[in-house]
Design goal:
heterodimer, A: 258 residues, alpha/beta, 8 helices, 7 strands, B: 258 residues, seven-stranded parallel beta sheet, globular
């Protein structure tokens, strides 16, 4: 899906991608690197992050893997400090780390532990990431932040209540950050993916064989997207092609919300 | 604003842009051509369309100017038939032709004639355009349609009732067309610009000196965009970089709706 001709809009830029050990984050890191950025590949899974960095370097790009837990403000502050120390600046951040709770309970059946855990990664993690990134970008004269929300932020779905709520929060957090930082020349936007073939989704398919067919039928484009189709949107938002786009959420769901 | 490095994502594509005699449409036509598309530049104002085609040809692009009133179903059918006859296909359409009342008027003070005129161009014109384009794209195996809506389609503004209503209609028309045409491999999306430095806006500034300052203050990014900043989003939506994006409206408003 990533067309043969990838533009080179991000030459000289320093980018951070969280949750980049797999799925959307890995594809995003690869695409940003293919467009010329130096990419810091961050994930709680250090081994997966290293694999992504290796894929990028094998393709001729520049990448460095770093472990990070986005629920830890200290780790995020330290990571951003290290990026600025080593590369001199931070221009692009794709705050993408997110989790599913691994089962699909109703709100009534959701435990407090599950609620706290998904909120701390998917919502507070994005806030903490931006809190660490924005001062560095401001010092550098500006930047572009892309947060991973979800089509589930706009439409409730059975078993996705806590997840959808975190992602709706990401949409508003994105708007708030855009408003606060436009004076610092920092654009803040979100992507809202629908169904994407990621390890997270593949594991749901293995739990429920009918799920894949059902999800395909629910999508007007009648297919599940490839992670590279999200990465191309991230690269657009990171680039000057989106120079007047801020506070926006780009839905990429094959028409499900149409 | 249109970055130095423009990619060639649209080589071999045939594109139609309406309202391309000036402003956003002209800029979009230039950008689509710069990315490799053959662009049919249409406008009610044939001189303006000719000037746009001339600019494209001077930059080594391929363009053809045609006169077109988008309020006429017959003219649209004929233009699309001519495009298919001459170029063999239609891959991309940017339905951009739109008008303003030329004055701010409350709904109570709006005449029926004004209502009919704005609706016939801004809303019915987009429908008639798609009605003519979709069958040709379907025969060609797919395509990408971009409609020009407005940030005003999401937020009411004093004196803008009819214009904004027409643009909110474009947002839903875009969703409806996306849903209906997904199976034909046609993606349909909208751009929703905020303030853009177009000839229409420059005329308004000439009439009201405080307006420019006021509009800049209302925009978090503190400036008015250049039409090229809309053209770059149109090119993104037209390209395979947006391969899973359909039914979406992308706000390009410097944070105005954040």
């Amino acid at each position: 899906m990533a067309g043969a001709a990838v533009p080179t809009r991000l030459v000289g830029k320093i980018a951070l991608v969280t949750g980049a050990a797999q799925g959307i984050g890995r594809a995003s890191a690869q695409r940003l690197a293919a467009e010329g950025a130096v990419v810091v590949v961050a994930d709680a899974n250090a081994e997966g992050a290293e694999e992504t960095a290796k894929l990028i370097r094998d393709a001729g790009g520049s990448a460095k893997a770093r472990p990070v837990d986005v629920t830890s403000a200290d780790q995020l502050e330290q990571l951003v400090r290290e990026i600025v120390a080593e590369f001199g600046r931070l221009d692009v951040a794709h705050n993408n780390a997110g989790i599913d709770i691994g089962r699909h309970p109703t709100l009534v059946d959701t435990t407090e532990d599950e609620w706290d855990r998904i909120m701390s990664v998917n919502l507070k993690g994005i806030w903490l990431s931006m809190r660490a990134e924005i001062p560095s970008m401001t010092k550098g004269g500006g930047g572009a932040i892309v947060n991973t929300a979800s089509a589930g932020a706009f439409k409730a779905g059975p078993g996705f209540s806590a997840y959808g709520t975190t992602k709706a929060g990401v949409v508003m957090l994105t708007r708030a950050a855009a408003l606060e930082n436009s004076g610092a020349n920092i654009r803040v936007n979100a992507i809202a993916p629908g169904m994407v073939r990621t390890p997270m989704l593949e594991s749901a398919f293995s739990d429920s064989p009918q799920l894949e067919q059902m999800l395909v039928q629910m999508t007007p484009m009648a297919r599940i997207s490839d992670a590279s189709e999200m990465a191309s949107i991230v690269a657009f938002l990171a680039s000057d092609d989106a120079s007047f786009v801020t506070g926006a959420t780009i839905v990429a769901d094959g028409g499900s919300l149409a | 604003m249109s970055g130095a490095a423009v990619s060639a994502r649209l080589a071999g594509k045939v594109a139609l842009v309406t309202g391309a005699g000036s402003g956003i449409g002209r800029s979009s036509a230039q950008r689509l051509a710069a990315e490799g598309a053959t662009v049919v530049v249409s406008d009610l104002d044939l001189d303006g369309a000719g000037a746009t085609a001339g600019l494209i040809e001077q930059a080594d692009g391929t363009a053809k100017a045609v006169a077109l009133d988008v309020a006429s179903g017959d003219q649209l059918e004929r233009v699309v038939a001519e495009i298919v006859a001459e170029f063999g296909r239609l891959d991309i359409a940017h339905n951009n032709a739109g008008i303003d009342l030329g004055a701010y008027a409350s709904l109570v003070d709006t005449t029926e004639e004004q209502w009919e005129r704005v609706m016939s161009v801004n809303l019915k014109g987009v429908w008639l355009s798609m009605r003519a384009e979709i069958p040709a794209m379907t025969k060609g195996g797919g395509g990408s349609i971009i409609n020009t809506a407005s940030a005003g389609g999401f937020k009411a503004g004093p004196g803008r009732g009819v214009y904004n209503t027409s643009k909110a209609g474009v947002v839903m028309l875009t969703r409806a067309a996306a849903l209906e045409s997904a199976a034909a491999n046609i993606r349909v999306n909208a751009v929703s610009p905020g303030m853009v430095r177009t000839p229409a806006l420059e005329r308004a500034f000439a009439q009201n000196e405080q307006l420019e300052q006021r509009l800049m203050q209302m925009t978090p990014m503190g400036r008015i965009s250049d039409p090229s900043e809309i053209g770059s989003v149109v090119a993104f939506l037209a390209s395979d970089d947006a391969s899973f994006v359909t039914g979406a409206s992308i706000g390009i408003d410097g944070g105005g709706l954040a």
